[in-house]
Amino acid sequence: MNARRLAPRRARGRAKGQDARRGGPCRAAREPAVAQGGGDGVHRAGPSGRAREEGQVGPRGGRGDGRPAVAPGRGQRGGVERVGHHHAAEAQAAPQLTAFGPAGEVTLPNPSHVKPESDWPAQPWYAYGLKLKDGREVGVAVVDHPKNPPSLWHNQRDVRMLNPCVVAPAEVKLKANEPLVLRYRVVAFDGPVQKEQLDRLAKQWRAE
């Protein structure tokens, strides 16, 4: 006699909390928890089916009163940023940057990349002097070389940039198999900007 193995019958009953169609968790159990906000600015998780009160997060992440929910972050409470007195103190004590050239302090406005005419005129050197929060002074200078193509300077104080730009006055054509050599001297120093010393270094650099 041929023996046949009978496969066990699929259970018709579903465990409690299971979907009758898929055999998985029921829809109510599968729904993700929806954050709810309270008046203290703290968002708590709760089932989406629970009734929402005033100030709680509503459907699609919004608040029950129609306003979007904002999670509090650093320096915030209840979604409102608070600015303390220490911010004002830090702004007052921020390092002070001053631009210098051979004629002394430069008061020209920062150049704009969309306004080539705002670039600073050609000079043997430009420098930045920086006064730190503790009162110390440091600085840096870039010295041009006469063998470089003519340059205008795109010196952006906001990003601490000293930038002699050889393509600002006119295009620079590169010849095949001939390298383009640009010569600059960079001077970093402690203390205030010493105009006479930078003039001397620029003169030495032009002779090299």
Question: Quick summary of this structure?
Answer:
This protein is of the alpha+beta class and 208 residues long. It is built from 3 helices and 11 strands; from the N terminus they run αββββαβββββββα. The termini are far apart.
Provide the residue-averaged pLDDT.
73
Number of domains: 2
**Could you tell me the strand content as a percent range?**
15-25%
Number of strands: 11
Shape summary? globular
Please identify the structural class as seen in this structure. Answer: alpha+beta
Strand order, sheet with most strands: 6-5-7-8-11
Residue ranges: pLDDT <50 for 5 or more in a row?
A: 11-62, 68-72, 79-83, 85-91
User: Termini separation (Å)?
Assistant: 109 Å
Largest sheet: 5 strands, antiparallel
Please report the number of helical segments: 3
Helicity level:
10-25%
Radius of gyration: 35 Å
Q: What oligomeric assembly is this protein in?
A: single chain
**How do the SSEs run, as a string of H and E?**
HEEEEHEEEEEEEH
Topology at a glance:
Blueprint: H1 27-30, E1 34-37, E2 43-46, E3 76-77, E4 80-81, H2 85-92, E5 96-101, E6 104-106, E7 125-131, E8 137-143, E9 152-153, E10 164-165, E11 185-190, H3 195-207
Antiparallel strand pairs: 1-2, 3-4, 5-6, 5-7, 7-8, 8-11, 9-10
Explain the overall architecture.
- By secondary structure, this protein is α+β, with helices and mostly antiparallel strands.
- It has two domains: 32-68, no CATH class; 96-207, no CATH class.
- It is 12% helix and 22% strand.
- It has three helices and eleven strands.
- It has helices spanning 27-30, 85-92, 195-207, and strands at residues 34-37, 43-46, 76-77, 80-81, 96-101, 104-106, 125-131, 137-143, 152-153, 164-165, 185-190.
- The strands form four sheets. It has a five-stranded antiparallel beta sheet, covered by helices on one side.
- The longest helix has 13 residues, at 195-207.
- The termini are far apart.
